[in-house]
Write a structure and sequence with these properties.
Elements: H1 5-23, H2 31-43, H3 47-52, H4 74-96, H5 103-117, H6 120-125, H7 134-145, E1 148-151, H8 159-183, E2 193-196, H9 200-210, E3 220-223, H10 229-239, E4 243-246, H11 248-256, E5 267-270, H12 273-278, H13 282-291, E6 297-301, H14 310-316, E7 321-324, H15 330-333, E8 337-344, H16 347-360, E9 365-370, H17 375-385, E10 397-402, E11 416-419, H18 426-435, E12 443-450, H19 451-455, H20 459-468, H21 475-485
Parallel strand pairs: 1-6, 1-7, 2-4, 2-5, 3-4, 5-6, 8-12, 9-10, 9-11, 11-12
Helix pairs in contact: 1-8, 5-8, 7-8, 8-9, 11-13, 20-21
Region (Disordered): 1-28, 62-89
InterPro entries: DEAD/DEAH_box_helicase_dom, P-loop_NTPase
GO molecular function: ATP binding; helicase activity; hydrolase activity; nucleic acid binding
């Protein structure tokens, strides 16, 4: 069967990436080291062994009749070879572990930076080099883990972040092609990266970053409203791009028309999720994700701190994720944690609400941070509910923690935290919020307080924190905050 022009071009692109990858391979050595290696190979070529039998040798206690003529013991030699082989394997295994981004990835970043340095606007706004980005290094580490990633800065992706994402994707393509060549696997025809954006202007920004990678055989196609559908479909078939940047509604039209196959996408980026949801594109995004049948990694940029976005994030990302952020704000650190402040009329009602929450909780482990004097009362309630501090049944496991002995450094795995005695200060509450559920989008922080105690509490800092995090503020707290400010 004759090969089309698109397949020929695709092979050329593959060869270009392979050459670039070899050129920037981290295993490349200096001329001096290469000379040492060559000398070692010459020493092992067998010349010395050939002349060894011709040389005069004396009898030894191991060879009293000189039958071996000074030749080394074969058995011992094999044993030593095994040891050397094993040591070499261990050494190679140690070298193969990535201690930093590959040179190929760095060269991709340099290509992008060089293309943008020509733009004076970019030069004025970006004084630092792309490869020095702390966000980029953190993202790269999260990408290697294979888990989904949530960017919690509350903003749209920046040029720096887009550059790191597409450079990492190009590096992953080169590595995958090497593996396919070794294992004689069939090449996938689907694009590697699918980048969903809410608007044409954002699509243009992402594509302008990707253009710099065209020299290594990475082709990018932008799909959005404003261009003919047939024209875009024919363009997809002729180019067969590695990257697609698209608005959800236009991409869904093309997928339904069978203009592109996205079933084998390896990396899905959803930018400005809050904007996509407010524009009514969430269902389209979900449909696109469902059309990807391959095992893939998702990256979500959440540009909204509203608690209404949390269910959408939970539906798009896996149970265990990595969070990365360019901001150190409390709202960013507490992203995707639902905060609920329960104001109760009395101690009895507070205990009833607490008991109801224990019954309705879907968490496997509930961490209860309480005062020492409340331990006996909480333990009695747990016993009545059949909830144990040791895993014995299908009910959730309770973990009681004295607030005086609270260690926030070990709270990253705590998804559900209950505060039946509220908290002595806003500082401790903030520490708990910013330390818990670091690898989950299912965080829940529930606080309980009586109206009597609420009157004497400084409500304004808590109200400000809840509003910054996009959480619901109870009316009693709003009233208290207004009264105190007056």
């Amino acid at each position: 069967m004759a090969k089309g022009d698109d397949n020929v071009q695709r092979k050329k692109n593959k060869l270009t990436r392979k050459k670039m990858s070899r050129k920037n391979d981290s295993a490349t050595v200096s001329a001096r080291i290469a000379a040492i290696i060559a000398a070692k190979k010459r020493r092992k070529s067998g010349k010395r062994s050939m002349c060894q039998g011709m040389c005069f040798s004396l009898p030894t206690p191991q060879d009293p009749y000189n039958e071996r003529q000074g030749k080394a013991d074969i058995t011992k030699k094999k044993k030593n070879n095994k040891v050397k082989s094993r040591d070499k394997t261990i050494k190679e295994a140690g070298v193969e572990k990535p201690i930093g981004p590959s040179k190929f990835l760095m060269s991709n970043l340099n290509e992008i930076e060089s293309s943008f340095r020509k733009d004076s606007t970019y030069s004025e706004q970006h004084d630092k080099f792309l490869f020095t980005s702390t966000w980029g290094i953190e993202f790269w580490k999260c990408f290697l883990s294979g888990k989904d990633i949530l960017e919690t800065s509350g903003m749209s992706s920046t040029v720096e972040q887009i550059a790191w994402i597409v450079s990492t994707a190009a590096d992953a393509i080169a590595k995958r092609e090497k593996d396919e060549e070794k294992n004689d696997e069939v090449e996938c025809n689907s694009p590697f990266l699918l980048y969903l954006v809410p608007s044409q202007s954002k699509a243009s920004q992402v594509r302008s970053v990707c253009k710099a990678l065209k020299g290594i055989g990475i082709h990018t196609v932008s799909l959005h409203q404003g261009a003919s559908l047939d024209h875009q479909i024919s363009g997809l078939k002729s180019v067969e791009p590695e990257f697609i940047v698209a608005t959800p509604e236009r991409l869904l039209e093309i997928v339904i028309s069978q203009g592109v196959d996205i079933s084998g996408v390896s990396l899905l980026v959803i930018d400005e999720l809050g904007s996509l949801c407010s524009s009514g594109y969430l269902d389209a995004v979900k449909s696109i994700k469902q059309a990807i049948s391959s095992k893939h990694q998702s990256i979500v940029f959440n540009d909204s701190f509203s608690s209404t976005i949390i269910p959408a994030i939970q539906g798009l990302l896996g149970r265990s994720i990595n969070k990365v952020t360019a901001s150190d704000s409390v709202a960013s650190q507490g992203s995707c944690i639902i905060q609920t402040v329960n104001v109760c009329a009395s101690e009895e009602q507070k205990l009833e609400k607490f008991a109801e929450l224990l019954d309705s909780s879907s968490s496997k482990i509930i961490h209860i941070v309480t005062k020492e004097e409340s331990f006996r009362k909480i333990r009695a309630l747990l016993k009545i509910k059949g909830i144990s501090e040791v895993k014995k049944s299908r009910k959730p496991l309770a973990h009681l923690i004295d607030i005086e002995q609270l260690d926030t450094t070990v709270m990253k795995d705590f998804e559900t935290v209950l505060l039946p005695d509220f908290f002595p200060s806003i500082e401790i509450y903030t520490q708990i919020l910013t330390s818990m559920a670091r690898e989950s989008v299912h965080g829940e922080l529930q606080s309980f307080i009586t109206e009597k105690d609420a009157v004497s509490y400084q409500a304004e800092p808590l109200v400000s924190l809840l509003e910054d995090c996009g959480q619901n503020v109870p009316d009693p707290w709003k009233n208290l905050s207004v009264a105190m400010s007056d």
